[in-house]
């Protein structure tokens, strides 16, 4: 029976690694919305509505909104007419100018409010901002975090706005009947056509129509005049 080999904890017998050391990992390029172009555009908005410095994650989210609006307008400006500066300004004003104040300008709250900006709600103007006076955004986020469902902030906020503002559906306009315009045939003279049009307009009136029918019936002879029909 072979004897067991004693454990040897000495690492001196391990040969040293041969070769060049690994080169350090190259830093990944910044995200497209993290360029100075979007940072300067965001700073102009913050200065205009007098909002102080914001955390890095909040700035990156707002810069991403700017870039996303630019991309959508590039694809189809008629379908996506909203400009990035307009959306970011309204998003910041909705939170900062309500009772929530600038302290509610966090990345999760901004993301949830941005998802609830339906055109039929936003078009109400001041009524849209006043709706957030009845919603404690910071307290709502803390409550959901205690329950372990902080990812449901957007759904809960949308439900609260639904109770305040009603369904975000714009009323459909009533369909209008297309108006057909008569044109004079080439075989009809201008005086005859004008006389026909004048008679047509005259017969549109109920009293004129009854008088014309009575006149035609009596002109044939041997016919009793038509009974007068009361006009409602």
Describe the structure.
It is a single chain. The protein has 2 domains: 32-165, no CATH class; 188-232, no CATH class. It has 232 residues and is mainly alpha-helical. α2 packs antiparallel against α3 (84-96) and α4 crosses α8. The protein is built from 10 helices and no strands. It has helices at 36-48, 56-75, 84-96, 107-115, 119-122, 126-131, 137-147, 153-165, 190-203, 206-219. The mean pLDDT is 80.
> N-to-C SSE series?
HHHHHHHHHH
Shape: elongated
- DSSP strand content: under 5%
Judged by helices, strands and strand pairing, the structural class is mainly alpha
Q: What's the gist of this structure?
A:
By secondary structure, this protein is mainly α. It contains 10 helices and no strands.
SSE layout and pairing:
Elements lengths: L35 H13 L7 H20 L8 H13 L10 H9 L3 H4 L3 H6 L5 H11 L5 H13 L24 H14 L2 H14 L13
Helix pairs in contact: 1-2, 2-3, 4-8
List its traits.
mainly alpha, 2 domains, 232 residues, 50% helix, 0% strand, elongated, single chain, 10 helices
């Amino acid at each position: 029976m072979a004897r067991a080999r004693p454990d040897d904890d000495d690492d001196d017998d391990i040969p040293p690694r041969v070769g060049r050391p690994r080169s350090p990992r190259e830093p990944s390029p910044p995200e497209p919305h993290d360029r100075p172009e979007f940072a300067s555009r965001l700073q102009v908005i913050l200065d205009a509505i007098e909002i102080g410095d914001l955390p890095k994650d909040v700035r990156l989210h707002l810069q991403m909104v700017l870039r996303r609006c630019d991309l959508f307008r590039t694809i189809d400006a008629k379908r996506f007419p909203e400009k990035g500066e307009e959306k970011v300004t309204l998003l910041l004003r909705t939170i900062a100018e309500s009772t929530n104040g600038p302290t509610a300008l966090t990345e999760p709250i901004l993301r949830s409010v941005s998802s609830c900006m339906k055109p039929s709600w936003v078009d109400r103007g001041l009524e849209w901002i006043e709706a957030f006076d009845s919603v404690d955004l910071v307290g709502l986020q803390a409550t959901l975090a205690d329950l372990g469902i902080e990812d449901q902030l957007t759904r809960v906020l949308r439900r609260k706005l639904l109770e305040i503002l009603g369904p975000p559906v714009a009323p459909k306009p009533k369909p209008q009947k297309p108006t057909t315009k008569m044109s004079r045939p080439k075989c009809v003279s201008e005086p005859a056509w004008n006389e026909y049009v004048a008679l047509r307009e005259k017969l549109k009136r109920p009293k004129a129509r009854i008088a014309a029918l009575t006149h035609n019936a009596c002109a044939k002879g041997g016919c009793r005049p038509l009974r007068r029909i009361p006009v409602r």
